[in-house]
Amino acid sequence: MHIIITGGGIAGLSTYLFLRKNLPPSPPYTISLYESHRPRTPNPNPNPNALNHQPEHEPSFDTLSISTAIVGGGLGVSPNGMRALYDLDPDLHAAVSAQGFPCEHFVFMGENGWTLGVQRTGDNGGYEGSEGREEVCVSSSRHGLWRCLNEKVGREVVKYRRVVGVEVRETGRRLVRFEDGGEEECDVLVGADGVRSVVRGSLFEGVEGTGPRYTGASGIGGFVDTDLPARVLENKAMVFTFGGSGFFGYGSGGPPEAKSLMWWSTFETDDLPSRENLDREEIKADMRKRHANSADPVIRDIIAKAEVESIYPTWVLPDLPHWGENGIVLVGDAAHALSPTTGQGASQALEDAQTLSLLLAGTLKRAYDTGAEGGSLEEKEKDAVAVSLKLFYDIRAPRIKAIAERGRKMDQQKKEMSWFEEYGMYCFFWLMMHFSPLRKLAMGDVNTQLYGWSAKAEVEKALASVESS
């Protein structure tokens, strides 16, 4: 069996690693991993998160983001994502934690300086409950997480070729076409190629309403080389500030000794940013104007010092009718671009990778264990893949839909609002943070829904159901 993965970001790299971990070793299989963008040459600057650093594989200012996993070049790997990393490889989990900043709390602030609430990020053992090992959110530069995954995969594995088309041949095999004119056949094609996925475009060719939609908001951000503020360092926290003129967040982009303060700001803009209409100084001036009245001295210091290093239009995808067929499957942003508000872009990509690999491993093992029964090896593999892709969507789509809905609710708090709306939001937010019944009524039991989920358990249930039927 030959598998091709398109996309060398978080979703693609983690899918490669989970497949290598979980697929049965016999009969042998091969995996090819393709990425369209070559990494940048590393800057010799010893601080990989410093303000003037342009790390490899990090988009420059004039390259617009096509990933919902990042805002401002940074991200948070939620406890469920960290748990997936630990299941994949404890050493990889340790490496991601070490290069990032474990956050035990989220601090929610009003632009007027009010502390609206503090929320623990710990998952209380996740699906295993008191018997499990607790995970917390880890804040990180996007490059830091990518680098850990890339080094685990091995730099020689990723091949830099741009995929431009996909088709299913009469033989039933998938044909991948490259920009350089080359072609390659495979038995399974994994589209991990982001929100503007070529693989998704081929899968839903001619079907309207299956492409990305700009939300009307964009994010900017970067890193400031400075000592971490007390609110971040002492509380081991990420800070989220809501106000009448938009949203602002900050946290550590690495371990405390890196002195890397990661920041991001989301704002409304009807016009979709493009390379042609970007004006760095104008964007920076608008940011300073939006947050000039912030009562938080950290925010005032950031907007005075920071350069706008990146701009990230936020995209979402509609609910797709499926995520794969005929041996082609979508993972990560290619399947379900989520609002950055969810804080789940990277973590859901990791869960996708784990779930898909466990399903393929389970169905293929059952197929191989039947021996000569049930047709040729090729036919049995094809049937196993078809079952896996159906179960993958059945398992993952409801979870993604619930997370996306929560993100839409949170996005409403990032819109510009009147004085009355702003203070009404503060009061409502404070009540939600201090009275758990109200919070659960408005947002559901977030910790249980987000962190009390297990790919292994869901796959075992799904496979048992197939077996019994």
Quickly describe the structure.
Helices cover 39% and strands 22% of the residues.
Helix content: 25-40%
Arithmetic mean of pLDDT: 86
Q: Which strand order spans the largest sheet, edge to edge or round the barrel?
A: 6-5-14-15-16-13-17
* CATH topology-level fold name: FAD/NAD(P)-binding domain
Strand content is 15-25%
Q: How many angstroms does the end-to-end distance come to?
A: 27 Å
The computed structural class is alpha/beta
CATH-assigned homologous superfamily: FAD/NAD(P)-binding domain
InterPro entries: FAD-bd, FAD-dep_Monooxygenase_BioMet, FAD/NAD-bd_sf
GO molecular function, one term: FAD binding
Pfam families: FAD_binding_3
Family: Belongs to the paxM FAD-dependent monooxygenase family.
Key terms for this structure?
single chain; 469 residues; FAD/NAD(P)-binding domain; 6-stranded mixed β-sheet; FAD-binding domain-containing protein; FAD/NAD-bd_sf; FAD binding
Kindly describe this structure:
By secondary structure, this protein is an alpha/beta fold. The chain has one domain: FAD/NAD(P)-binding domain. It is built from 15 helices and 19 strands. The strands form 4 sheets. The chain has a 7-stranded mixed beta sheet with strand order 6-5-14-15-16-13-17. The two termini are 27 Å apart. One of its GO terms (molecular function) is monooxygenase activity. This is FAD-binding domain-containing protein. It comes from Immersiella caudata.
